[in-house]
Amino acid sequence: MKELTHYINGAHVKGTSGRFSDVYNPATGEVQAKCPLANAEELEAAVQAAQAAQPKWAATNPQRRARVMMKFVGLLNRDMDKLAEALSAEHGKTFPDAKGDVQRGLEVVEYCIGAPELLKGEYTDGAGPGIDMYSMRQPLGVTAGITPFNFPAMIPMWMFAPAIACGNAFILKPSERDPSVPLMLAELMEEAGLPKGILQVVNGDKEAVDAILYHDVIQSIGFVGSTPIAEYIYGTGCSQGKRVQCFGGAKNHMIIMPDADLDQAADALIGAGYGAAGERCMAISVAVPVGEETADKLIEKLVPRIEALKVGPYTSGDDVDYGPVVTAAAKANIERLVQSGIDAGAELVVDGRGFSLQGYEDGFFVGPHLFDRVTPDMEIYQKEIFGPVLSTVRAASYEEALKLAMDHEMGNGTAIFTRDGDAARDFASRVNVGMIGINVPIPVPLAYHTFGGWKKSVFGDLNQHGPDAFKFYTRTKTVTSRWPSGIKEGGEFNFKPME
């Protein structure tokens, strides 16, 4: 049995707490590794190393820090397949999807190469009589991130790349379900030239999280996960005087207008609803066709596409559409929510229950499901399922469809499919959701814009990556400077008149 480690001060360190978590192969259901769960003493060792290393790193000029990011990008490209293989083996997502996970993180690292420009302050000459004013963006010190299982490469890089580019040290607490890729990323960062102690990986569960929350050296915390945990981390972290940004759950709606290209919309729903087995915070889990005719035609187009989906392990090739979910507990929760939809009276148009894959009967595979005539009072509408389950809620009008997205407590992402520019513009302007797609099903912004939802999908006032990341991981210091007037006469170089 493989025993994983922490990564502290430039070295792999065995766990000393005596507690471990099983890391599964989701395709077979077999335990493939043990992940150590850190206690407060193990976290303390990482904090001390980070605290010792950070001042010298902060004093390194931004251009030299950016060069580490440049080298890291090259190493990510070099090891792309190796990283994707490790990611697929622990998470279960397909190999192309795993490479996409790494790629979207890499793009944020590329953005961070621009740190010298992004960290520039402001200057006002002559703000008053003999007074100049200028501002500086300075690093926070030791920072930390708590990341989820569903993007074990992308989200850690979304956090640690800007934090480190700003001159901070960073302690990463990844998901204990798939921790191998974060450990590999830490190794690659040091190969790229990052000093030891600046990026460290401490595996753990709530004990490690609480140690981070209550440690007075750690200045900021980033989190991505479920809304209840996001609320807990945000409330606790803020009460400890830390800067905190937390991103929670989602229930993303896609409105399909009567004038939409329904083949395009159906294809978009397949990818956005079932890709990565639905284990994405930006997955479309609610389709909202406007009008009965639109709904009937959409269902008619969706059914054969869903029934043709190929579900299997990543080792079956690149034509697999999605793989298993991450754990047996995740599978059981999805199955419970599916049953709750049936019990509540929703129409199960495509029934994925009882799905079994020959040779992988013990794997955590879930067949694709499609519900029709779901209503807002049902649990499958209210809760994030995080599985390959698409719910259809029929709306009689555009205003009713818009109201559905606006009334839901989650506000991460949403989309509208239409040929009507006025409807699209109105939707983008009015809907109270953070990320909007117009004929784009998963509107994740590129690295130089920011990622963040609204309502109970986010806690904090700054988004991830883009310019907001450089604001989050720095403090602004403003200097007002006045030099008293002194003796200006020194050496004389002019010709004096004869006396």
Explain how this protein is built.
With 499 residues, this protein is of the alpha/beta class. It folds into two domains: 2-248 and 457-481, Aldehyde Dehydrogenase, Chain A, domain 1; 252-438, Aldehyde Dehydrogenase, Chain A, domain 2 (3-Layer(aba) Sandwich). 38% of the residues lie in helices and 22% in strands. It is built from 16 helices and 23 strands. A hairpin with a 2-residue loop joins strand 2 and strand 3. Helix 2 (62-78) packs antiparallel against helix 4, helix 2 crosses helix 7 (180-191) and helix 3 crosses helix 4. The radius of gyration is 26 Å and the shape is globular. The relative contact order is 0.14.
Shape: globular
pLDDT under 50 segments (min length 5)? none
| Biggest beta-sheet profile | 7 strands, mixed
Q: What integer value in Å does the Rg equal?
A: 26 Å
Taking strands numbered 1, 2, ... along the chain, how are they ordered across the largest sheet?
A: 15-16-17-14-13-19-20
Strand content is 15-25%
Could you tell me the CATH topology label of the largest domain.
Aldehyde Dehydrogenase, Chain A, domain 1
**Can you tell me the number of structural domains?**
2
In whole angstroms, the N-to-C terminal distance is 100 Å
What's the CATH H-level superfamily name of the largest domain?
A: Aldehyde Dehydrogenase, Chain A, domain 1
Number of strands: 23
Count of individual helical segments:
16
Q: How confident overall, as mean pLDDT?
A: 96
CATH architecture of the largest domain: 3-Layer(aba) Sandwich
